[in-house]
Amino acid sequence: MNKNYTLNNDLEIPVVGFGTWQTPDGEVAELSVLTALKAGYTHIDTAAAYKNEESVGRAIKKSGLNREDLYITTKLTNPSHTYEDAQQSIKDSLEKLDLDYIDLYLIHWPNPVTSRHEWKKRNADSWRAMEEAVDAGLIKSIGVSNFHPHHIDALLETARIKPAVNQILLNPSDMQEELVRYNKKHDILSEAYSPLGTGKIFEVESLKDLASKYNKTVAQVVIRWSLHHGFLPLPKSVTPERIVSNFDVYDFELSPEDIALIDGLKGTAGSAIDPDTTNF
């Protein structure tokens, strides 16, 4: 299969990324990212809120890989939803990552509780700063995370540049069908964070059976399922063996019957939270 998707701005993005959510800053994050890069990942996903951008940057440097061969994503943190704060946050992320540009920059959350009373204006202001960073060559692509259709509709009222990506929780337990349909209709790529259900997916017996059937791990089966649906999974691990095996998903395909079986596993490993009612 093609190992890149083409975004709505005609730029390519690797179809599997390495997630760093909940990966502690310091040696753990640095070694896990370095292991991923050595295993063949070229797409690394971090965020200001993860507080590990500096570790990611050090791993990139130590890998010895050419910058143009890598795809790096980071995100705008919740307290920075103003035009000026977004400008500063972009500069801060570039400095911490020690990069000249960011491949993909996302608004991490549509409506932080501290600014929920004016989320629409805050997103528009932040997006304007991001668009200007694209104009300046500091960012290649911009997008959103955890946005629902009404959040994107509001953003599109003032946006010059259309979001290329919506990074959302996606795994067999919660496929967020309505939101995925909306993304697809608007040519916005659905990126899947927690594609393995933060580990809960490994407890599902039917997935264990499928892993045995294909002589693969449960993680490999679920990542392959994610790719079948056109999602971009961001598996995370700090275990070297799992980091390597999670990337080894290109030599098999799931049967239509097994895809349908996995589609039916809703509710087995949690679900996405509602961004409009959560308390952060």
Set out the fold topology.
Elements: E1 4-6, E2 12-14, E3 18-19, H1 27-39, E4 43-45, H2 53-63, E5 71-76, H3 83-97, E6 102-107, H4 119-135, E7 139-145, H5 149-156, E8 165-169, H6 177-185, E9 189-193, H7 205-214, H8 218-228, E10 232-233, H9 240-246, H10 256-263
Parallel strand pairs: 3-4, 4-5, 5-6, 6-7, 7-8, 8-9, 9-10
Antiparallel strand pairs: 1-2
Helix pairs in contact: 1-2, 2-3, 3-4, 7-8
Write up what this structure looks like.
The chain is globular. Helix 5 links the parallel strand 7 and strand 8. It has 280 residues and is of the alpha/beta class. Helix 1 crosses helix 2. The chain contains ten helices and ten strands. The protein has an eight-stranded parallel β-sheet with strand order 3-4-5-6-7-8-9-10. Strands 1-2 form a two-stranded antiparallel sheet. Helix content is 39%, strand content 15%.
Give me the number of helical elements.
10
- Main sheet characteristics: 8 strands, parallel
Which structural class do you get from the secondary structure elements? alpha/beta
Number of strands: 10
Quick summary of this structure?
With 280 residues, the chain is α/β, with parallel strands linked by helices.
